[in-house]
C-alpha cells in the first residue's frame, strides 16, 4: 500500500518475463535476483562495498517490511530493473522479424547467454540508476520519503561515483544469473507461461522506458529541473540510436539467423504459422 508504484512495476515485470521466459525461469530469477541485491545492500551499509558507504533511515519499519536494515521493496526493485535491462539488450542485439501482428527477435541460446548481452544489459541497468538515484535521494520531497543517504555527498547530485560502479558490478551478477535461467528450458514446446502475445518483445523495453519516465516526471514535479533536464540529456542520444537501430534492422536478418533461432526455439511464431499454445 505504501509503494504502489514499485509493485506496479513488479507486476509489469512478471507479465513481461513470464510471457518471454516462462514461469519457472521468472520465479527462479525473482528469488535469486532478490537475494543478490539484498546481500549487496546489506554488505554496503555495513562494509561500504560495493556501492560505497550509505545508510538507511529507519522511518517506516513499523509500516513496511524491512530485513536486516534494508527495506524489502528496495532490493525487490533490482529484479525488475535487471529483467527490463536484459530484454532491452536482447531487442537491440537480436535480428528482428516483423509482420502485421508481431515483432519477434530471433533469439538464440548463444545470444541469450552472450557477453554482449551481459555487457550491454548491465550498462543499461546502471543507466537506470543514474536516472533513479538523484531523484530518490530527494525522497523527502515526494511520496518515497527520505529513506537513505550517503555518508559523504557525491559529485552527481549528491550520489558518489562508487554507487554507480557498484551498480554495474551487481547488475552484471544479476544479469549473468538471469542468462542462466533464460536458457535452461529447451524443447519443442514453449515453457509454461510463454504465449504468442503480439509485440511481447516490446514489454520489457517499455518497462525500461516507464521507469525512466516515472523518475524524470518526479524530478519535474518536485522542481528539480536540473536533475530532470540532465537525465533527459543522458538518455536521449542512446534512446535515439537504439530506436533507429531497431527500426533499420527489422526484417534484414540472414537466413542463417532464422534457422538458428528456430532450431533453439522451434515454437516461435512465424508469418506462416501461429505459435502453439503450450
Helix and strand arrangement:
Blueprint: H1 4-21, H2 23-47, E1 54-56, E2 66-67, E3 70-71, H3 72-93, E4 96-99, E5 102-105, H4 109-112, H5 115-136, E6 148-150, H6 161-182, H7 203-221, H8 225-249, H9 255-264
Antiparallel strand pairs: 1-6, 2-3, 4-5
Helix pairs in contact: 1-2, 1-3, 1-7, 2-3, 2-6, 3-5, 3-6, 3-7, 5-6, 5-7, 5-8, 7-8
Give an overview in words.
The longest helix has 25 residues, at 23-47. Helices cover 60% and strands 6% of the residues. The protein has 278 residues and is mainly alpha-helical. The protein has helices at 4-21, 23-47, 72-93, 109-112, 115-136, 161-182, 203-221, 225-249, 255-264, and strands spanning 54-56, 66-67, 70-71, 96-99, 102-105, 148-150.
Keywords for this entry:
single chain; 278 residues; mainly alpha; two-stranded antiparallel ribbon; two-stranded antiparallel sheet; 60% helix; globular
Tally of individual helices: 9
Instruction: Describe the sheet with the most strands.
Output: 2 strands, antiparallel
Strand content: 5-15%
Secondary-structure element pattern, one letter each: HHEEEHEEHHEHHHH
What share of the residues lie within helices? 55-70%
End-to-end CA span: 35 Å
**Spatial order of strands in the largest sheet:** 1-6
Q: Could you tell me the mean pLDDT?
A: 93
Number of strands: 6
What's the multimeric state? single chain
Low-confidence stretches: none
Rg, rounded, reads 19 Å
Give the structural class: mainly alpha
Shape: globular
Short synopsis of the structure:
The chain has helices at about 5-20, 25-45, 70-95, 110, 115-135, 160-180, 205-220, 225-250, 255-265; strands spanning about 55, 65, 70, 95-100, 100-105, 150.
Amino acid at each position: 500500500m505504501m509503494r504502489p508504484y514499485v509493485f506496479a512495476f513488479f507486476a509489469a515485470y512478471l507479465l513481461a518475463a513470464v510471457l518471454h521466459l516462462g514461469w519457472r525461469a521468472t520465479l527462479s530469477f525473482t528469488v535469486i535476483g532478490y537475494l543478490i541485491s539484498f546481500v549487496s545492500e546489506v554488505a554496503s551499509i555495513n562494509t561500504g562495498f560495493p556501492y560505497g558507504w550509505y545508510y538507511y533511515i529507519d522511518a517506516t519499519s513499523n509500516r513496511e517490511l524491512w530485513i536486516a536494515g534494508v527495506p524489502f521493496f528496495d532490493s525487490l526493485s533490482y529484479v525488475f530493473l535487471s529483467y527490463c535491462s536484459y530484454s532491452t539488450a536482447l531487442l537491440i542485439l537480436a535480428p528482428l522479424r516483423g509482420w502485421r501482428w508481431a515483432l519477434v527477435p530471433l533469439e538464440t541460446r548463444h545470444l541469450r547467454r552472450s557477453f554482449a548481452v551481459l555487457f550491454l544489459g548491465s550498462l543499461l541497468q546502471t543507466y537506470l540508476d543514474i536516472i533513479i538515484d538523484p531523484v530518490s535521494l530527494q525522497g523527502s520531497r515526494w511520496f518515497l520519503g527520505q529513506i537513505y543517504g550517503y555518508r559523504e555527498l557525491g559529485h552527481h547530485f549528491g550520489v558518489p561515483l562508487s554507487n554507480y560502479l557498484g551498480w554495474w558490478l551487481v547488475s552484471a551478477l544479476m544479469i549473468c544469473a538471469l542468462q542462466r535461467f533464460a536458457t535452461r528450458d529447451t524443447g519443442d514446446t514453449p515453457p509454461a507461461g510463454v504465449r504468442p502475445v503480439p509485440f511481447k518483445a516490446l514489454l520489457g523495453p517499455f518497462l525500461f522506458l516507464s521507469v525512466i519516465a516515472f523518475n524524470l516526471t518526479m524530478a519535474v514535479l518536485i522542481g528539480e529541473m536540473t536533475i530532470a533536464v540532465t537525465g533527459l540529456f543522458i538518455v536521449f542520444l542512446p534512446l535515439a540510436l537504439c530506436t533507429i537501430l531497431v527500426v533499420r534492422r527489422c526484417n534484414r536478418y540472414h537466413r542463417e539467423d532464422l534457422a538458428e533461432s528456430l532450431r533453439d526455439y522451434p515454437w516461435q511464431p512465424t508469418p506462416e504459422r501461429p505459435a502453439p499454445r503450450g
